[in-house]
From TrEMBL:
SUPFAM superfamilies: Acyl-CoA N-acyltransferases (Nat), Chromo domain-like. Its main location: nucleus. GO terms for molecular function: histone acetyltransferase activity; zinc ion binding. InterPro entries: Acyl_CoA_acyltransferase (IPR016181), Chromo-like_dom_sf (IPR016197), HAT_MYST-type (IPR002717), MYST_HAT (IPR050603), Tudor-knot (IPR025995), WH-like_DNA-bd_sf (IPR036388), Zf-MYST (IPR040706). GO terms for cellular component: nucleus. Residues 139-427 form the MYST-type HAT domain. The active site is at 332 (proton donor/acceptor). Gene3D superfamilies: 2.30.30.140, 3.40.630.30, N-acetyl transferase-like (3.30.60.60), Winged helix-like DNA-binding domain superfamily/Winged helix DNA-binding domain (1.10.10.10). PROSITE patterns: MYST_HAT. Residues 1-24 are annotated as: Disordered. It is found in: Nucleus. This is histone acetyltransferase.
Length: 429
């Protein structure tokens, strides 16, 4: 994340190399690439193009073995080496992963559900693999390299299906209030001057004083907000805004398939409140009617606002709403690695607090009704803490107040929570 420069022209895609220009590395090749830290890493060549600064030089779009696709990047030919498999580890400083690390990823939950509902087919390994292959093929290249949004310029992590007229841009300009996307800085600046919209559409359901930012955030140039606000936005009533939100989110989420069919969803948009208005920092979405009992379909905190505790605030808001609905909830699964860590950390804090307040004298069912956390999530979390045992055919909490206190001290991280006093939900009609 960087502050924007003064570029005024629209980004243009690189030129194509002449057809007779040599390109020694074939698509699909497994090579080693030198990264910025000087280390060599095993990679797969996904695409190639002509360097826009040299008419005959090639660049290669590579995926680093065993790494998340957000690290995929274009590299110049001088950083790419073709070597035999038995020689990969001989290079000094090499950090090479075997070819098997180019493994399969699971199909997205929404892709699975949509295919099942339409075709009434049963999930199978072959079916999942075909879906994943199709997804990866259609999204293998980042079509937008970076965005400018408010005070920040942010590198994109993944492909997002912006309309063709806006795709293949080195940079898109996105309004932090309306989420309108533009190709040119002049259009962006004109929009900033003329637009009167300074907050998301929908109903404000939460507003509270913002906690002081960590000194590291302030030293990095982030501004201290005066307040935090959350808006409930109905996808059927603010369709364009929600579609723009989904397209923006896809730049930072790999497995996300909801882009344009936003009508069945509610979006809970978290904002920092500054003098200029309510600036988007993150959101979660949920289905209006979930047969599976999911209280979160998708959740994201924008990269420039991560490590502020906003993820936990969004998760807690979802569970506070579930409590008021009188339901238990759980996020759609499978969770990403980072998602699993965030939810497990939240569940751990909530469950330990409940056990501490009741000195451990709680059943799993009682905890679920108190916290709105699904029993399966409670069991898996307590198992990770060794606070549960299986006895006579059922899971039983096995813990003493002393052990709970020890775990509380070990997990004593301050985090933002949704204060029910300031949550106006259900919102007034």
């Amino acid at each position: 994340v960087t502050m924007p420069d003064d570029t005024t022209s629209a980004s243009t895609p690189p030129a194509s190399c002449p057809t007779d220009s040599p390109h020694p590395v074939a698509l699909g090749s497994h090579v080693i690439v030198q990264r910025g830290d000087g280390q060599w890493h095993a990679c797969e060549v996904i695409e190639r193009r002509c360097d826009d600064t040299e008419s005959t030089a090639w660049e290669y779009y590579v995926h680093y073995a065993g790494q998340d696709r957000r690290l995929d990047e274009w590299v110049v030919a001088s950083r790419v080496q073709l070597e035999a498999d038995d020689g990969l580890g001989s290079r000094k400083g090499a950090n090479v992963t075997p070819d098997r690390e180019f493994g399969h990823r699971r199909a997205t939950r929404n892709m699975k559900r949509k295919i099942d509902e339409i075709n009434h087919v049963q999930n199978s390994a072959a079916h999942d693999e075909a879906l994943e292959k199709e997804h990866e093929e259609s999204t293998k290249l980042k079509n937008v390299q970076r965005i400018e949004m408010g005070r920040f310029e942010i590198d994109a992590w993944y492909f997002s299906p912006y309309p063709d007229a806006f795709a293949q841009q080195q940079k898109l300009y996105i309004c932090e209030y309306t989420l309108k996307y533009m190709k040119r800085r002049k259009a962006y600046e004109r929009h900033q001057l003329t637009s009167q919209v300074k907050q998301p559409p929908g109903l404000q359901i939460y507003r509270t004083k913002a906690a002081p930012l960590h000194p590291d955030c302030l030293s990095a140039g982030l501004l201290q907000p005066s307040e935090l606000s959350i808006f409930e936005v109905d996808g059927s009533k603010a369709k364009v805004y929600c579609q723009c939100l989904c397209l923006l989110a896809k730049l930072f989420l790999d497995h996300k398939t909801l882009y344009y069919d936003v009508d069945p969803f509610l979006f809970y948009v978290l904002c920092e409140v500054h003098d200029g208005g309510h600036s988007l920092v993150g959101y979660f979405s949920k289905e209006k009617v979930s047969q599976e009992g999911h209280n979160i379909a998708c959740i994201l905190v924008l990269p420039q606002h991560q490590r502020k505790g906003y993820g936990k605030l969004l998760i807690d808001t979802a569970y506070q709403i579930s409590i008021r609905e009188g339901k238990v909830g759980s996020p759609e699964k499978p969770l990403s690695d980072l998602g699993q860590l965030s939810f497990r950390s939240y569940w751990t804090q909530v469950l330990l607090q409940a056990l501490s307040e009741h000195r451990g004298n709680l059943s799993i069912k009682h905890i679920s009704s108190m916290t709105a956390i699904k029993t399966e999530d409670i069991i898996s979390t307590l198992q990770s803490l060794n606070l549960i045992k299986y006895w006579k055919g059922q899971h039983v909490i096995s813990v003493s107040p002393k052990i709970v206190d020890e775990h509380l001290r070990a997990n004593a991280r301050s985090s933002l929570r949704c204060d029910p006093e300031y949550l106006t939900w259900p919102p007034p009609e």
